[in-house]
TrEMBL record:
Organism annotation: Sodiomyces alkalinus (strain CBS 110278 / VKM F-3762 / F11) (Alkaliphilic filamentous fungus)
Pfam families listed in its UniProt record: PhyH (PF05721)
Taxonomic lineage of the native organism: Eukaryota, Fungi, Dikarya, Ascomycota, Pezizomycotina
Identification of the protein by name: Phytanoyl-CoA dioxygenase family protein
InterPro entries found in the cross-reference section: Phytyl_CoA_dOase-like
Signal peptide: none
PANTHER family: PHYTANOYL-COA DIOXYGENASE DOMAIN CONTAINING 1, PHYTANOYL-COA DIOXYGENASE DOMAIN-CONTAINING PROTEIN 1
GO MF term list: dioxygenase activity; metal ion binding
Alphabetic keyword roster: Dioxygenase, Iron, Metal-binding, Oxidoreductase
């Protein structure tokens, strides 16, 4: 059977858009070419092998489960326009020293790869003059198909899911961490349908002392809890009965995730790592990016996927 024609080159068909808003996620096969996948993997291994431990604060990335605090030191809070490395909690021994080689101890690399790393930048902003070509699925075209007027890429990261120690990530919603009013976050990287009945109840915000950010806190969300025009929220769709299902993907596939969607990952106890690249986009036009979000825009603003019309 022939593949359905996308609504715009590199975008989504109307059927895919309907599926995304119905289920809260969409798996798009072969979104990246094999050569792009190979280039991004090579870049990931180069970064893991070349970063220095000499001046590293050894920041561990914590998801806040089992009573642990979310990561919130300055190395993390000021990473919005830098490429930084965050370690797995289980990569350290009782004395606080690494018990794994550094390349197999990193939880994630973030959060400005989409600007500072050429292979990853080429995914969101390919430069024809540099010989970079658009991928089969183009983020700008996907955002346009979803109705974004001025989408901005605000963070990107490689998540390593290291062998044996790759930590579990508890159920969460991306809009909890990247809140706009009204909510607009979309993850380009699960609980089908949970975005229709799971409001954004909490938010991860900066904790300040004397006007200086010193950490993060999870607080109750007093703002808008669903994207605008969500008929499920208007009808009180909270409490929808659904079950988690695995999303099976191959190298180069894209998983598109709604900001209200509950999703999680289990601990990696296998001998094989699972490397993924993910970035998040928000709507700039008609929304307010909250000043208390842990991630604040760099001086030049968040990266445009395309100019507003």
């Amino acid at each position: 059977m022939a593949t359905a024609q996308r609504h715009e080159t590199g975008g989504l068909t109307p059927e895919q858009v309907e599926t995304f808003y119905r289920d809260g996620y969409l798996i798009i096969p072969q979104a990246l070419t094999p050569s792009t996948v190979a280039a991004c993997l090579a870049e990931t291994h180069r970064l893991l092998d070349s970063f220095s431990l000499e001046d590293h604060p050894m920041t561990r990335f914590s998801t806040g489960q089992e009573g642990a605090e979310h990561v919130g030191d300055d190395y993390f809070l000021s990473s919005g326009d830098k490429v930084r490395f965050f370690f797995e909690e289980d990569a350290f021994g009782p004395d606080g020293s690494l018990i794994k080689p550094k390349a197999r101890a990193v939880n994630k690399i973030g959060h400005y790869l989409h600007e500072l790393s050429a292979p990853f930048r080429a995914i969101t902003r390919p430069d024809p003059a540099a010989g970079e070509t658009s991928q089969p699925v183009r983020p700008a075209a996907v955002a346009r198909a979803l109705g974004f007027r001025d989408p901005r890429c605000l963070q990107s990261m490689v998540i390593c899911k290291q062998p044996e120690i790759g930590g579990a990530v508890p159920p969460h919603q991306d809009s909890t961490f990247l809140y706009t009013d009204p909510p607009s976050a979309v993850g380009f990287c699960f609980l089908p349908g949970s975005h229709r009945g799971a409001p954004i109840r909490q938010r991860l915000v900066r904790r300040e002392q004397g006007g200086v950010a010193v950490g993060t806190d999870m607080v109750a969300n007093e703002g808008t809890r669903f994207p605008p025009g969500d008929e499920y929220a208007e009808k009180g769709g909270e409490g929808t009965e659904t079950a988690y299902v695995p999303g099976e993907v191959k190298a180069g596939d894209l998983v598109l995730i709604h900001g209200n969607l509950l999703h999680k990952s289990e601990k990696n106890t296998s001998q094989k790592g699972r490397i993924i690249y993910t970035f998040h986009a928000i709507e700039q036009d008609g929304t307010k990016y909250d000043e208390w979000n842990w991630l604040q825009p760099p001086e030049q603003g968040f990266t445009r996927l395309y100019a507003s019309s």
